[in-house]
Queue: 3 jobs
Job 1
Amino acid sequence: MHFNIWGAFFLYMEVIEFIKYFEKWAPPGAAWDKDNVGLQIGSPKTKITSILLALELNKKVIKEALNKNCNFIFTHHPFIFKPIKNLNFSSDEKSQIIKELIKNDITVYSAHTNLDFTKGGVSFKLAEMLNLKNIKFLELEEENQYKIAVYVPNKSLDSVADSMFENGAGKIGEYENCSFRTLGEGTFKGSELSNPNVGIKNNFEKVQETRLEVLVDKWNLNKVLNAMINAHPYEEPVYDVYVLKNKNINYGFGAIGELEKSMNESEFLGHVCKSLKTQNLRLTKGKSSKITKVAVCGGSGSDLLFSAISQQADAFITADVKYHTFQDAEEKILLVDAGHYETEIHSLDEVKKRIDKFVRENKYNIKVYKYSRSTNPISFYNYTGVK
């Protein structure tokens, strides 16, 4: 908390507060294993003045951050992706940018594939931009959940469950605090060295207990287990951890939905250009004369082509499509390469909306800006001489 000369209160949040809030929505554990997400440069204890959002970081983004008094830059593409072997401030642009960031005490945070793979993230926002309805993941992540089953005396059941829920357990789709509870009887006999919470040592005891079962994502497992053990009244809580093969309905790849009204191919392509604010599309024709069901994946999503086909999508919008992928799609699905930047940039609107809400609810004296220019390195040359 800070004061100005007139005695008014100004509230700023620390970087760590932002991270905790944001990562409840897009946890780093949901990202691709080889990705580099999270805090890139800076300190978790830095107080944020204002925030600038950009798809990626360059010198022009830093200049705008300084002009707008932003000491926190959020990017989608990680600034540091590969290991940095040295910092050469004379010739290497990345090194020069790092120097500029440190000199001006600017923090950089990136959310990449965790933002791609989370509900409401990059692909969901792309689907919303196209006005799709009934949006869901095109493919779900799998084998990244566990089930914890713990035996709790009935009087302590709610406190143990609440502690586990508060640390990320029990989330299934749009539901929280999900669990299954089975009443039973536990038995034990403590040794001379024991200090039982129920009954007495050296005595065979019977206790009414409940088997509490909850789901937990792999990145929250240790945190939930520690919370459970700390909240449990027993010296030696009995619990099981099961590896699940389930699909995780909370995280996935791409998105799929339906247009409110079917369009012919020409109408749909115009709709894509208008929605994404682009005049350039690469495509191969599909088999359907009417477009109703549409699959999308922001950025490089060609690997999801056959999922889109198998789910009977009439069109698939993504980017960075290779020549032979277009061949694979020909006469099966309308495959549209709308551009990497063009399919991802709109996700910053969702990020801004959520941060604005958090700032407003906590009465922080912080402004959130989107970079006013484009960081897209690709431009198009239209030559009219070829007929």
Job 2
Amino acid sequence: METRNNNTMQARLRPLSAYYDETWLEYRLLWLDPTNYAVHFGYWDTQTQGHPHSLIRMNEVLGAAIGIQPGQRVLDAGCGVGGSAIWLAKTLQVEVVGITPVHSQVERARRFAAQQGVSDVVVFAEQDYTRTTFPNSSFDVVWAIESVCHSAQKEQFFREARRVLRPGGRLGIVEYLRHRRPYPPADEDLLHSWLSGWAIPDIATSDEFLGFASGAGFHQLELTDIASCTEPSLRRLYRMASVAYPIAVVLHRLRIRSGTQHGNIRGARDQFRALRRGLWFEAMLTATAGA
């Protein structure tokens, strides 16, 4: 039975792994900064000083909203290649466990942590963040930046986050949310042109997100629309994708670029088109685990 469940999980997560494996070079060349391995969007306010700092600024703002304290144990759920986990350990003096279902990301995250000298306080593992192997009440904080979107079982993510958090522990999420459900067919098509290109099955509404959190046993829920602070980052990606898209189409037709790689650049273009049409926004959610 365990083998069957593992096979089912691997099959379910295979498109996500393929996406990040095949698009790694694009992320590496166009988005990541050598000192910060974040694959999320940036946060722009009066303190932000350029694209690399905007990625760090997102970490700073979420960390402050959660109220992370030195010495706490943090689960980075959907850690990517370790950008936030390494930042948390170095900047806030916490112990971090980063998990991702993408094997290649675990290998890269471990290498980056070693380069940054934090391997003693940051560990990475290949796990599904909706079904982890951690004991109950293992963490003080669960952190997730733009990772819950990849799960088709978002309610299960909240239940699992509550299970591994100690009573009074804090949850902090940055995520894409739709304004309502459903949209007219043309709008749904545009939204899913973006989402499918980034291996995202769908995104939740704010009411759904808050309902999942409260239903899982979280309280003190605070959901903030941060779209105005992330829009410069979204626009930056859109401009790069728009310039590259005609060439990408030709390369895809010549089978030089894969369908997954083409979907990535299509998504980079259509995320902003969908934003301008008012179909989604980026939000920050913090909550406290009940007793």
Job 3
Amino acid sequence: MIKFFLRLFIPAIGLLAFEACAGQSVDKNYADHCASCHGAGRLGGSGPALLPENLARLRRPEAFKVIAEGRTASQMAGFSDKLGKEEIQALADLIYQPLPAVPVWGANEIITSYLQHVPAGSLPDKPVFDADPLNLFVVVELGDHHATILDGDKFEPIYRFPTRYALHGGPKFSPDGRFVYFASRDGWVSKFDIYNLKVVAEVRAGINTRNLAVSGDGKTVLVGNYLPHTLVLLDAADLSLIKVIPAEGLNGKSSRVSAVYQAEPRGSFIAALKDVKEVWEIPYATKDFPVRRIAVDNYLDDFFFDQSYRHLIGAARDGKKGQVVDLDSGTKTAEIDLPGMPHLGSGITWAYQGRPVMATPNLKEALVSVIDMTTWQTIKQIKTIGPGFFMRSHENTPYAWTDGFSSNSQASRDAMTLIDKRTLEIVKVLRPMPGKTAAHVEFTRDGKYALVSIWENDGALIVYDAATLKEVKRLPMNKPSGKYNVYNKITHSAGTSH
């Protein structure tokens, strides 16, 4: 009888030991390969939170594929060369397991996190430097989490300071260009006084944050979160909390926020929900910030506005067509033929043969789509060296610049393609630093110079004469992800994102 029970229980004990070992293995694999980007507790970091409530649109077989092969148009690398199929499946299963408790981050937590470094309004109203305050660049250096204030005339750094971890979504400016607001992936919002080169206030608006927007009147900041599913309104003067709005559809479904923007001509914020087919308009001069809900045909993972901000052009990550929404009427007015995966958030506009056109790079296909904004028909698909991420121009240059940042080939990632806006033909391919990733062009306020990022830890900013295309200067930088010209941003230049 004793032998019988031993034969019965020893395999069971072995199975339990195996399961415990497997659990330790998946935890170790997560810690080794995932935690640095997605957070030790799966709450997000430089990458999004990996929780069931944030994965509603990603089916489990697709999750396995993403872990194995990586994901287009993201920093997500594949791990099939490091992990076996069983290990990848275990990770895919893990991210769909709910946490015992998801941390709460509501009004009380936001208020408690608040840090006032300098009392609002206590600093001088005159810059402490001699450079033109409207021709400055704010350069985000992701390599060591710093930002540099750069003189756009002399191309010399004025001040370099540490930022919060993994800034995302691009900094936003006050209407006069004096203040810049940063949002980090882990939810921290910082207000920096450019005139006095000081951080004046900070607050943690969420656990995993998408981006922020500053109202056209300079009074309010709106923050969109992946976790929790909220929109957070802050007073732009001191970053004190105004209101928390749950991101829920009419059907009660909770949703991440794809992105938030300010639409100054409309006096409102625009927010898109990632898991609900709605876009929200929130007037910022109206008491209590009421939400106007606009139903859309598909999810809006990425979107773009015409210069009047009447039309919103949106696309889903897995969609086949773009949709044009008339924000005045709240209805879809057109579909756009956008193959692959357009990056509308990096779209630009200009006048072509007397017609307003928009152009967008593509994260999946080696092309740039040029669209007539009167008929919403495709004028041309311009073939490029590789899939791109950023596209930029300026009213005073005939060229649009686009990169090959989304390409899997370094032979494309080190190239900048220049398109003549008058002929829609490629006129030049530059390789600023052969073998190194080139990305994100931004122009000086007059459009005479173009600055290119070398997106490497031992990278640089390379300054080009925008007319002759000759290199003017090279400044060493630590993975400069983006640089933002104060004047071009606050005047909503047609050549840059808003």
